Each structure stands twice: as C-alpha cells, then as structure tokens.
Amino acid sequence: MKALHLFYAFILCFTFSCTNNPTADTEEGIRGRVVSIADGDTFTLLTDEKKQVKVRLHGIDCPERAQDFGQVARQKLSDLVFNQQVRVVEKDIDRYQRTVGVAYTADNRCVNEELLRAGLAWHYKEYDKNPEWAALETEARERRFGLWSQHNPVRPSEYRRSKRKPKTETVEAE
Fold it and tell me: What average pLDDT does the segment 78-87 reach?
C-alpha cells in the first residue's frame, strides 16, 4: 500500500510540478545571470540592468556549508545555475533583504525542486505548503538520496541554533 501511495505521489510530482506548470514560463520574474553561489540555497543574480540581486530559494533549506552535504548542495546549485540565465519568481523579501523566490533555469527546470529531488534540501513546510515538494522530499528520503543517506541528518535551522553563542549574564562584582 505504501508503494502505491508513493507511486501516486511520484506521478503527481511530475504532473503538477512547477517545471510542468503552464504559467511558470509566462510568469514574470527577475531575469539575469547567476554570478555567485553563497551556499546550497542562496545565489546572486546580475540583471540586464546590472543590478545585483541576492536570491534565497523559497520553500527549501539546504545544509549549511560546514554541515555534511553542505558543499554538495552548493555544488549542485552551481552546476544548475552558475553563469547561466535564470528567472526568479519573487515570493517575498526576507529579513536580510534577500529576494525569496522560485528559480527556473533557461530550459524551465525548477531549481528548488531539483535540490529536493537530489536529496540536498529539506522542504521548508513552515513557509511552503506545496504537497508536490513535500512528496519530492519524501521520495528522496525513502531512496536515501543525498543527505538522507545519513543516519540522522541535522536540519540547518537546528545546526545554526547550536552554533549561536549563548548570552552570558553579567555578574556584578561585590
């Protein structure tokens, strides 16, 4: 029964994913060439107007650079978009003033989905409710792709939290 559910989820992913979305190709977005890769889910786009736009991929969270698979995710993103023309459909602006969006390659592949499919990102369910993206993560987990090959992968948010310096209380001298 689980295999049947997985099969249907897989079919749904390819039927209704953003790569096959008829509006994806016609949606306006920020267009430009990717000039740098910060990590697995962040890059800088240089628009035709020579404006640099820092882009954080919507709905996914890749391992940090120092985490296991962090460099692999960064390399995968680089392979997909570095020095390539891409289109980013903006969803939001984050607290760091980055454009949060869904990125598409010149051949209309959804970069966010490619990272999920490769097992190099968590689906950020707190910010995105897309069931197809949830199914892509589930498929990668079950097939033990990428970071899911590890026994107990650590979410990037937990990793970042563990690296923060604890606030120390000031002790007054008596």
Answer: 98
18-72 pLDDT per residue, tens: 444 434 445 789 999 999 999 999 999 999 999 999 999 999 999 999 999 999 9
CA 44 to chain centre: 14
**98 catalytic residue (yes or no):** yes
For residue 17, the surrounding DSSP H or E stretch is none
pLDDT value of position 51? 98
Question: Which position among 56, 74, 109, 117 bears the catalytic label?
Answer: 56
pTM (2 decimals)?
Answer: 0.81
Cα–Cα distance for residue pair 106/83, rounded to 1 Å:
11
Q: What is the CA radius of gyration of the chain?
A: 18
The residue from 74, 87, 98, 109 that is catalytic is 98
CA 89 remoteness from chain centre: 14
The active-site residue out of 64, 114, 132, 137 is 64
Alpha helices (H) in the chain, listed in sequence order: 2-16, 70-81, 111-117, 131-143, 156-163
**Is 64 labeled as catalytic in the residue annotation?**
yes
Q: Determine whether 117 is an active site residue.
A: no
